[in-house]
Each structure stands twice: as structure tokens, then as C-alpha cells.
Design brief:
The protein contains six helices and six strands. It is α/β, with parallel strands linked by helices. It has one domain: Rossmann fold, CATH 3.40.50.1820. Strands 2-1-3-4-5-6 form a six-stranded parallel β-sheet, with helices on both faces. Helix 2 packs across helix 3. The longest helix has 16 residues. 43% of the residues are buried.
Length: 186
């Protein structure tokens, strides 16, 4: 599959993805890409985030292309929570980057506690989980357990922090190459 064969939906995490974040950069480069906008990026409510994601996937059906979900951090958990509401035929695949641990979520007071625990059931569509060995919001072991439970292919990004602008991942060309590899399998 090529990016032009799918609606590419970017699902940022807490605070949205700023202008230098890899999600924003990729979104500008991919002609069929758009961001799943949330009403409140600073005090996310799981129910609201799921509803927006389901709505955007439904909008993708008008284009007659399946959706590829590219989620970062808390956005990854929104995808996993929304998965039972998404028909597998609507989603070609999900590219999930550094989902936070349950402990990281409960430590942040502005986050809806409904985000935890993270569902630990297989996703109904192909997925890749990219994890860092020194992510401040979740251990590599936690990411391994999630990947196994979700049926995701685990990609070890090494010592890459949270794979965001603060960890030096503005353009993140390695991630884009890995996305291209994933798309070829769909």
C-alpha cells in the first residue's frame, strides 16, 4: 500500500504535536493526511477522544480509502481504546509510537483516569508499536507487553526518549522509513 491509497490519520498525544514534531512534518508532506483534532489537548477525556477518532474514521469512508492510523503517546492509547468501535475493514493498520504506561498516566493529574488501564486485547487490524528503551513515560518491558497483547509488531528504537521534539525527533526519517516498510505489508 502507498500513502496515496489510504487516508492517513494522525492522532497526537497530550498537548498536540507542535510545528517541529515529526507528526506535523509528516502530515504536511502526505497528501492524504489529516490530524484528528481534539477539543481539549491539555485535559483529555477518553470518551471525547474516542468519539473524535471514530468520527474521523467514518469520514474516511467517504473517500473510499481505508484509514492508516499514526498515533503518538496518549494518542496510541486512544486508538487501542477505540479499536472495538472501528470495523476492521475501515482500518488498514495502525502505527503506534511510545504508548505511555498506566503509571505515567495516573501520575499526570489532568489526564482522564479512564485511559487506564490500557486494553490488553488483540487489535482487529495490523499494527506496529515503536518503543524506546529510555522513554520517560513507559518502560520497554511495558511496551513489549502491550505489543504482545495487541498483536503488534514491536520495533526497538533504542535510546530514543519519548520520540518527540524534546528527544530530538523533529523530522524522524527512521520512523518514516519504518512506516513505509509497514505500509508495504498492508
Amino acid at each position: 500500500m502507498r500513502t496515496s491509497d489510504a487516508d492517513i490519520l494522525f492522532i497526537p498525544g497530550l498537548g498536540n504535536s507542535g510545528p517541529d514534531h515529526w507528526q506535523t512534518r509528516w502530515e504536511k508532506k502526505l497528501s492524504t493526511a489529516r490530524r484528528v483534532e481534539q477539543e481539549d489537548w491539555e485535559r483529555p477525556k477518553l470518551e471525547d477522544w474516542i468519539a473524535r477518532l471514530v468520527e474521523e474514521v467514518a469520514n474516511s469512508q467517504a473517500s473510499k480509502r481505508p484509514a492508516v492510523l499514526i498515533a503518538h503517546s496518549l494518542g496510541s492509547l486512544a486508538v487501542v481504546h477505540a479499536a472495538p468501535l472501528l470495523a476492521p475493514r475501515q482500518i488498514a493498520g495502525a502505527y503506534l509510537i511510545t504508548p505511555p504506561s498506566n503509571g505515567a498516566i495516573t501520575a499526570l493529574p489532568d489526564l482522564d483516569p479512564a485511559f487506564v488501564p490500557a486494553p490488553m486485547t488483540a487489535l482487529p487490524f495490523p499494527s506496529v508499536l515503536v518503543a524506546s528503551r529510555n522513554d520517560p513515560y513507559g518502560s520497554f518491558a511495558d511496551a513489549q507487553a502491550k505489543a504482545q497483547a495487541w498483536g503488534s509488531t514491536l520495533v526497538d528504537a533504542g535510546d530514543a526518549g519519548h520520540i518527540n521534539t524534546e528527544s530530538g525527533h523533529g523530522p524522524w526519517p527512521e520512523g518514516l522509513m519504518r512506516l513505509a516498510t509497514f505500509l508495504k505489508t498492508l
